[in-house]
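Researcher: Let's do a round of design. I'm pasting the structure tokens now; please hold your answer until I've finished.
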């Protein structure tokens, strides 16, 4: 792959992970959620906005850790991917979760920009996964659950 093509691909994958374009970003989805509604599970939905945010954080961190290191430790599905319901989430917990999501995205973007990495070669510790596939997985997974946050907000009457 030529340097210019690689740069274009990295820019497209980065934009895809950041969100926007055809769907709202995580920041747009969570801005303005009142603290007292973060942990409310809307009728007929299985998760609160907090649980969805934390699941995004946990799953994305898992994907990034897997993509970066052969020392990756597999999490137990579903127990270690989904937080239990809770009645209260502090502003600090909320902000820490968002900060970690952003930090893990930056770690992944650094991996994408590392010219020593072949974006299409299978990761030696995986079962055929490559960095491009993992980038698309992050984008796909996050956008799916961001949409669920929007649905939860609509049901709670706190969306546009």
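Researcher: That's everything. Go ahead.
Model: Designed sequence:
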């Amino acid at each position: 792959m030529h340097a210019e093509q690689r740069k274009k691909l990295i820019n497209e994958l980065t934009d895809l992970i950041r969100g926007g374009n055809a769907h709202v970003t995580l920041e747009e989805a969570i801005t303005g959620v009142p603290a007292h509604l973060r942990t409310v599970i809307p009728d007929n939905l299985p998760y609160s906005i907090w649980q969805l945010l934390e699941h995004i954080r946990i799953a994305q961190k898992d994907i990034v850790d897997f993509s970066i290191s052969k020392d990756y430790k597999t999490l137990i599905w579903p127990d270690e991917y989904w937080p239990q319901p809770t009645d209260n989430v502090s502003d600090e917990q909320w902000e820490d979760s968002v900060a970690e999501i952003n930090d893990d995205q930056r770690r992944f973007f650094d991996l994408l920009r590392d010219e020593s990495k072949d974006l299409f070669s299978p990761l030696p510790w995986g079962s055929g996964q490559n960095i491009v596939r993992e980038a698309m997985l992050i984008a796909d997974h996050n956008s799916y659950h961001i949409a669920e946050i929007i649905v939860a907000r609509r049901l709670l009457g706190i969306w546009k």
